[in-house]
């Protein structure tokens, strides 16, 4: 079938639908919803059998949905309607929710139902839920709807609130008035629900030190206590605020834009507030080892089970600043000293990594200089992984990775992926050559020609295709929790396998042979020479592309690489 995806952005879910439908043999085009006339022109040119909207925040014009079948993915169960479904689900503590694929009609979200899939609501922020449980359920629903559409005998179910399985309702936009936190009255559970319902967008509007900020994140703190609403601690760029019965961590803040002030964007909370406002607030660190046994916020956790060490890292949006890379490197070095045979790297769920931290770079006094520090810190981390020869290192991807984040994963001996994962192994969309030793690791895995193609085409790669290409070694279906349990079983089996010693000897020999053929420093020098040009050269697109990314500037037209 010819399927045209119409989306507000080529976001994670749209990318996933794109990769899956292509793998199912469909001809898939993408059109960003950037204006009715552009959409009309594209539809008339593409002549789709079906239009599918995986993530659309605007309406499709009537002359399109009356002439073509248009299916909309709505992140709510049957009967749920409105623009803030997930916000309401999280705010109200729903434990099960759904994704429904419905046909576009004049009334928003009221069309006949083609498929509806339930999912369990994990305790996490809205965007994380969206990229994980919602995306998995949406995929199931989309594939079912497309299959039913292909079967001309299927009749979609009209929306009928008298049916027992239609339990949703029409809900209003979840404005800031619903999100407000009363620090003198709301308990921690309520505060966390409000924060999570607003994370990562739009955040909860609140006041701190007499200024207005959108609060982002929302994680429990098990020990620290203080006067409700006050900032009682900092840790690795986050702030901790006391509630009436506990405390919560807020990793990021975004100042409210003043009427004639510049556009604002999210930054680590401590950077945003600065040392003057935070004078007297103690930095309360936690080691990765300790964090693994506590209910507190930490980007790093380290645990061991038998002969396997697990270094978990979880960075908001998968972005890794210079400081975050350095902290992860320190934790990695410690883990590498432990008497374990296998080391597993990766967050328990959500993004693995999306490379250098573009927001922190954008906010720096000298973005070129900060880019340079950041890429060098990333490279130091990757180098430490590449040169670990006394252990098998596994990258376990429960969630997506992009750009330098993919190359970080490739530094390990094996890459294991949850089937839902989408990889973007390229840098060009950010105007970068890229580093992280990719010129060593990527061709080594997929060959020079395919490495060139992947980095040039700039298209997402689904996990199954990644395995077929050699980008990933093992791929399994299932939820993030199932993946975690599977990883543990596989890692323990590796550590106990009699051939482990031989594998480690072979690994050491291969590294030595590779080093003799071309030292790692030569790859690094070459890549960094290109990156230096990207950061400091004249007429380089990187600074403009980064600014647009950070400020979420939408393109004028659908980028050419998305036109099928
Ligand atoms: N630096 C800073 N923030 C980043 C980031 C990065 N490298 N990568 C992702 N983010 C943020 C996004 O701004 C977004 O923030 P929000 O939740 O406040 O809106 C969040 O992480 C999730 O990203 P989003 O783009 O909404 O997710 P997606 O799944 O739709 O797309 C990517 C994922 C990776 C394709 C896209 O985020 C991307 O292109 N990132 C940049 C990758 C890159 O070029 N890195 C630098 C070179 S190494």
TrEMBL record:
Domain Formyl transferase C-terminal span(s) in chain numbering: 176-256
InterPro entries attached to this UniProt entry: ClpP/crotonase-like_dom_sf (IPR029045), Enoyl-CoA_hydra/iso (IPR001753), Formyl_trans_C (IPR005793), Formyl_transf_N (IPR002376), Formyl_transf_N_sf (IPR036477), Formyl_transferase-like_C_sf (IPR011034), HoxX-like (IPR047180), NiFe-hyd_mat_HypX/HoxX (IPR009188)
Transmembrane regions: none
Domain spans labelled Formyl transferase N-terminal: 39-142
Protein's UniProt keywords contain 4Fe-4S: no
CDD domains: crotonase-like, FMT_C_HypX, FMT_core_HypX_N
Alphabetized UniProt keyword annotations: Homeobox
Alphabetized GO MF terms: catalytic activity; DNA binding
Name under which the protein is recorded: Hydrogenase maturation factor HoxX
Organism of derivation: Nocardia wallacei
GN (gene name): hoxX
């Amino acid at each position: 079938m010819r399927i045209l995806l119409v989306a507000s952005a080529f976001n994670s879910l749209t990318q996933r639908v794109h990769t899956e439908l292509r793998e199912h043999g469909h001809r898939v085009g993408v059109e960003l919803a950037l204006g009715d006339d552009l959409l009309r022109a594209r539809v008339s040119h593409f002549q789709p059998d079906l239009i599918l909207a995986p993530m659309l925040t605007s309406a499709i014009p009537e002359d399109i949905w009356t002439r073509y079948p248009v299916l909309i993915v709505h992140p709510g169960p049957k009967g749920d309607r409105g623009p803030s479904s997930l916000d309401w689900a999280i705010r109200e503590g729903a434990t099960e929710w759904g994704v429904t694929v419905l046909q576009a009609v004049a009334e928003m979200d009221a069309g006949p139902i083609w498929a509806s899939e339930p999912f369990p609501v994990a305790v996490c922020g809205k965007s994380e839920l969206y990229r994980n449980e919602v995306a998995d359920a949406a995929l199931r629903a989309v594939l079912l709807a497309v299959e039913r559409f292909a079967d001309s005998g299927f009749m979609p179910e009209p929306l009928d609130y008298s049916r027992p399985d239609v339990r949703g309702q029409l809900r209003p936009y979840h404005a800031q008035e619903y999100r407000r936190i009363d620090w003198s009255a709301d308990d921690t559970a309520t505060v966390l629900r409000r924060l999570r319902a607003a994370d990562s967008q739009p955040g909860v509007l609140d006041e701190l030190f007499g200024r207005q900020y959108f609060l982002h994140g929302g994680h429990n703190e098990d020990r620290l206590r203080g006067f409700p609403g006050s900032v009682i601690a900092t840790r690795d760029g986050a702030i901790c605020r006391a509630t009436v019965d506990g405390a919560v961590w807020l990793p990021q803040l975004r100042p409210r834009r003043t009427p004639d002030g510049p556009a604002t964007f999210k930054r680590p909370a401590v950077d945003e507030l600065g040392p003057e406002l935070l004078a007297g607030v103690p930095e309360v660190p936690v080691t990765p080892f300790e964090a693994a046994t506590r209910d507190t916020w930490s980007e790093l956790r380290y645990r061991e089970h038998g002969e396997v060490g697990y270094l978990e890292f979880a960075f908001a949006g998968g972005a890794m600043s210079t400081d975050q890379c350095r902290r992860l490197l320190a934790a990695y070095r410690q883990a590498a000293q432990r008497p374990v045979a296998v080391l597993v790297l990766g967050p328990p769920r959500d993004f693995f990594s999306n490379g250098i931290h573009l927001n922190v770079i954008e906010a720096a006094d000298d973005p070129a200089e900060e880019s340079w520090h950041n890429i060098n810190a990333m490279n130091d981390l990757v180098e430490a992984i590449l040169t670990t020869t006394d252990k098998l290192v596994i990258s376990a991807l429960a969630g997506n990775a992009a750009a330098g984040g993919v190359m970080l994963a490739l530094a390990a001996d094996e890459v294991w992926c949850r089937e839902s994962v989408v990889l973007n192994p390229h840098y060009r969309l950010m105007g970068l050559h890229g580093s992280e030793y990719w010129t060593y690791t990527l061709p080594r895995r997929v060959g020079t020609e395919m490495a060139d193609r992947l980095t040039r085409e700039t298209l997402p790669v689904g996990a199954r295709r990644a395995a077929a290409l050699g980008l990933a070694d093992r791929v399994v279906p299932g939820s993030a929790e199932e993946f975690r349990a599977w990883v543990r079983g596989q890692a323990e089996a590796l550590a106990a396998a009699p051939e482990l010693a031989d594998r480690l000897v072979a690994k050491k020999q291969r590294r030595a042979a590779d080093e003799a053929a071309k030292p790692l420093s030569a790859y690094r020098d070459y890549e960094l020479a290109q990156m230096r040009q990207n950061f400091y050269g004249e007429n380089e697109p990187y600074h403009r592309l980064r600014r647009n990314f950070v400020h979420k500037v939408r393109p004028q037209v659908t980028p050419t690489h998305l036109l099928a």
